[in-house]
Amino acid sequence: MSSTEFLTDELTEVQGVDVEAALDPVEADGSYRDSRECAALALTSGSTSLLLSPPTPRPKKG
Amino acid sequence: MEQSGTSTRLADAVQGLTSELVSALRSGGPFALAAAVSAADGPAAVRVVGADAVLPSVLRRTPAGPDDLAVFSGAVRAYPPPPGASPTSVWSHWAMKRTLLRLGGTLDAPHDGVPEHNGSPEHDAEPLATWLDGASWQSLTHQLAVLAPLAVPGGDCAVTRVARGRPVDVARGFVRAVRRRDWLQAAGAGRWLVLLDGVPDTLGLEAGLAFVAQMGCADPRVTLQVEAARLMRTGAPV
User: Fold this and answer.
1) Most C-beta atoms within 10 A of its C-beta, which of B30, B35, B114, B180?
2) pLDDT of residue A53
3) Domain spans, chain B
4) Any chain A CB within 8 A of the CB of B199?
């Protein structure tokens, strides 16, 4: 195997790992809005009321 | 966390491809997948974008060009799910194969003379969706958002049947994603909700999607999901 072939194989292998990682992402860390900010955003976003709904439970840590 | 060189290249290629797809969906103009990706990173980017890489053809029910199908098919062949792959990888790959065959493509490698597949959608067994059994509404929404390319009209499969059975849970997940500012998950969940019956009217999905589009506009992957939802909702030729 030439060095070029080796490099190509190695790159493909690394990229395959990256592809699999991209296809199974962990959930992004979220930042919850406080109620006043949600209310302001709801007012500026038309008739939607979803941001005024009660806050969803925060994930328990530990 | 620091990304490797190849993962950064891949992320850039995915962003570039999704930007091209958004432009095509918005304009209604032609989309040439083969011209939208590079030879080096294109196949990997197409594999990550999945069946959405040919979304303009799917939603408009227009044929894809042979060059585009060749690129799409090449990505399917180049990146099969490895042993022990995640369910989302397996399902994404299955969705690409189904889409390819529906668009008239083939999984055969050009000039190799050895068919990998007989070209029948029924030939390829549908993966199991048992990993979604009993999933919390938070986890379900995350998984569905990752598999948003499965949310297309007429795209019946085990995953869509799970989603159809839990519209309120997906709606809750959509709200949660918005509140967490996870615009990509919110956009993917919103796309699913467009296709589901039984979504609470109080959700305000249309306005919610507009909000997500506004807040997540810096990421073309978000915009792609919102545009797909909009086209399916407004009934552009789908």
Assistant:
1) B180
2) 60
3) 1-125, 128-238
4) no
Task: Check if A28 contacts B (Cβ < 8 Å).
Answer: yes
Q: Is B59 a residue whose pLDDT tops 50?
A: yes
Write down the pLDDT at residue B94.
Answer: 97
Average pLDDT of chain B is 90
* Residue A54 at interface with chain B, using a CB cutoff of 8 Å: no
Q: Which of B142, B175, B210 sits opposite A27 (nearest CB)?
A: B142
Domain that holds residue A18: 3-51
Residue type, B61: R
Residue type, B45: A
Contact at CB, B89 and A41, closer than 8 angstroms? no
| Cβ-count burial B54-85 (b if 16+ within 10 Å, e if not) | bbbbbbbeeebeeebbbbbbbbbbbbebeeeb
Partner-chain residue, chosen from A19, A21, A53, that has the shortest CB–CB distance to B175: A53
Contact across the interface for B179 and A25, Cβ inside 8 Å:
no
Q: Which long-range contacts (CB under 8 A, 24 or more apart) does B106-111 make?
A: B106/B69, B106/B73, B107/B73, B107/B76, B107/B77, B108/B73, B109/B73, B109/B74, B109/B77, B110/B70
Runs of H (alpha helix) within chain A: 3-23, 35-44
B41, B204, B210: residue with CB nearest A49: B204
Q: Is the ipTM of this complex over 0.85?
A: yes
User: Quick count: other Cβ atoms within 10 Å of Cβ B22?
Assistant: 20
Q: How many residues does chain B have?
A: 238
On whether any CB of chain A is under 8 Å from the CB of B176, the answer is: yes
Q: Give me the pLDDT at residue B113, please.
A: 45
- Token pair 């962003």 is at which residue? B15
* pTM as predicted: 0.84
Range in A25-34, B37-46, B165-174 the model is least confident about: A25-34
Q: Is B110 exposed, middle or buried (0-12, 13-18, 19+ CB in 10 A)?
A: exposed
